[in-house]
Design brief:
With about 525 residues, the chain is mainly alpha-helical. It has three domains: about 170 residues, no CATH class; about 130 residues, no CATH class; about 110 residues, Serine Threonine Protein Phosphatase 5, Tetratricopeptide repeat (Alpha Horseshoe). It has 23 helices and seven strands. The strands form two sheets. The chain has a five-stranded mixed beta sheet. A two-stranded antiparallel ribbon has the order 1-6. This is Tetratricopeptide repeat protein. It comes from Streptomyces xanthophaeus.
Length: about 525
């Protein structure tokens, strides 16, 4: 972003070319300001360089690619460089009407579409379009390419918009729509690709088995690939994957996939293998529920499990499964873009989904989107206990994101929600079937349970974070209320006491007076 773009530099030095670019082709370097603050979801740098008379803006990205954002909330990559973008804009004026044209159409159909669009431009605001195009291309040293080739380049760029160039509103984090309706491959295809490659390697011979099966990232992807590309000769490698998964991860979803795929073969020795895995741990016992006592029933058990939970169509798998695998594979932007699209599409019935999205964003390191999802999750909680728990999660995310004051407000709301309304006053009404007054039912406060320990720790962490920021009132109040919660914990852990000491030390170092 620090290196000047040679084409833009040349254009800005030529006022005559600036006028042509703005007037006939909608690339006005004097309009380099968007209607709202935006950013790339990835956090990569973005710089506005031009605009058009509809309120749209052209941005250059870190690698020199050009992104266009409309004033109506659409965005897309339109060139891998400023040179390519301008060749497309000048060679295909009215390019926004061409984004969905069918490249398989014959030359006559495409020529008719291009001619119609250019005719409207000539009659509307650029009567000298052809001369302006020649002057601008020549003056900037750009090529005049066939319009079919320009359309192909444009569509190839548009298809690259996600995941790396997903544009979001800077304040809310909501994604811009795509500029086109071109077909894109499903998420699962990119996530399964490494697993399919490794599965093919394992099928070539045992020399690569341990290398792949030992890898906590590659192993689950291979098992997912094996689920959809089943071959009879895979049984030995499935056993190896199962044993490595059991030793490394325990009761995981991928282990159950391996067990089901092995069980479908129905070998008696595999009944013994799977039974030993199931008996090795209570979680394994639960994971492989309904496991048959008889080897003869193994195939039926596996087939029933396969039909109800797995199958052979990756389209049937929940998208959050693929985003989690993408994150584990290091395909961060692929996971992020998919999660943002899912979050943007949530509604009032999606409380559980919002909680899962918040967890996945946090695991991805995107605390801003995690906070956004958790706020929406909080807003859907009618039960005071669930709302309090959700607010405590929100406070933790806000603290980690550096917004300590917001975290403190959320934590205070969490405590209020968890406490609930005050208990009713005891009455002298006689209980049924006896002559004694009714007694209130005894209950255990959340403060005496594990949640009390967690909330107390949140107080100390906020106090520790607030002190060096000069938020002395926040630090003092959080420390005071944290101590009260600590005193009410029946069995405070060593970690909780250590958190209290750290908060007290941080407060004492910077407290005024």
């Amino acid at each position: 972003m620090t290196c000047p773009d040679p084409v833009l530099t040349l254009l800005r030095r030529r006022p005559d070319l600036v006028r042509l670019a703005a007037g006939s082709f909608g690339f006005d370097t004097g309009r380099a300001e968007h209607v709202e603050e935006v950013r790339l979801a990835s956090g990569a740098p973005l710089m506005a360089v031009a605009g058009d008379d509809t309120g749209g803006t052209y941005f250059t990205c870190a690698d020199g690619a050009v992104l266009y954002a409309s004033s109506e909330g659409g965005a897309g990559l339109i060139g891998s460089s400023t040179q390519e973008a301008l060749e497309i804009l000048i060679g295909l004026p009215g390019w926004r009407d061409c984004t969905d044209l069918d490249l398989t159409a014959d030359d006559e159909a495409l020529h008719e579409a291009f001619t119609r669009t250019e005719g409207e431009i000539r009659s509307s605001y650029a009567p000298d379009l052809d001369a302006d195009r020649s002057t601008l291309l020549s003056g900037l040293g750009l090529r005049r390419l066939p319009r079919r080739e320009l359309l192909q380049r444009l569509q190839e760029c548009l298809l690259r918009t996600e995941p790396e160039f997903l544009l979001v509103n800077a304040d809310e984090g909501c994604a811009y729509d795509l500029l086109d309706r071109l077909r894109r491959p499903p998420l699962w295809r990119a996530v399964l690709a490494p697993g399919r490659a490794d599965l093919a390697l394992m099928r070539t011979g045992r020399s690569r088995w341990d290398e792949i099966a030992d890898d906590p990232v590659r192993r689950p992807a291979v098992l997912r690939a094996a689920q959809y590309e089943r071959q009879p000769q895979d049984l030995p490698l499935l056993r190896s994957l199962l044993e490595h998964e059991a030793a490394s991860c325990g009761a995981s979803e991928e282990l159950r996939i391996a067990a089901v795929l092995i069980g479908l073969h129905g070998a008696p020795e595999d009944h013994t293998l799977l039974r030993s895995v199931r008996q090795s741990d209570p979680d394994m016992h639960f994971l492989l529920s309904g496991f048959p006592e008889s080897p003869g029933a193994l195939t039926r058990w596996a087939a029933d499990f396969d039909e109800s939970n797995y199958g052979q169509d990756p389209h049937d798998v929940y998208d959050l499964t693929w985003t989690e695998l993408a994150r584990r594979q290091g395909q961060t932007e692929l996971a992020r873009a998919a999660l943002i699209r899912i979050l943007d599409d949530t509604g009032p019935r999606d409380a559980a989904l919002l909680a899962s999205l918040s967890h996945q964003f946090a695991a991805l390191g995107d605390l801003g989107q995690a906070i956004r999802a958790r706020r929406l999750h909080v807003s859907l909680q009618d039960d005071s206990g669930e709302r309090g728990t959700a607010l405590a999660h929100l406070a933790s995310l806000q603290r980690r994101a550096g917004d300590v004051e917001a975290a403190w407000q959320s934590l205070r709301r969490a405590v209020t929600a968890l406490d609930g309304p005050p208990p009713p006053e005891p009455t002298e009404q006689l209980a049924l079937f006896c002559d004694r007054p009714q007694q209130p039912c005894p209950s255990i406060s959340w403060r005496q349970l594990g949640q009390g320990t967690q909330i107390a720790e949140q107080h100390f962490l906020i106090a520790q974070a607030a002190a060096p920021l000069g938020l002395h009132e926040v630090a003092r109040a959080a420390l005071h209320e944290g101590r009260a919660l600590l005193d009410g914990c029946p069995h405070p852990s060593a970690a909780l006491r250590a958190a209290a000491r750290a908060a007290e030390a941080a407060h004492e170092r910077v407290a005024p007076g």
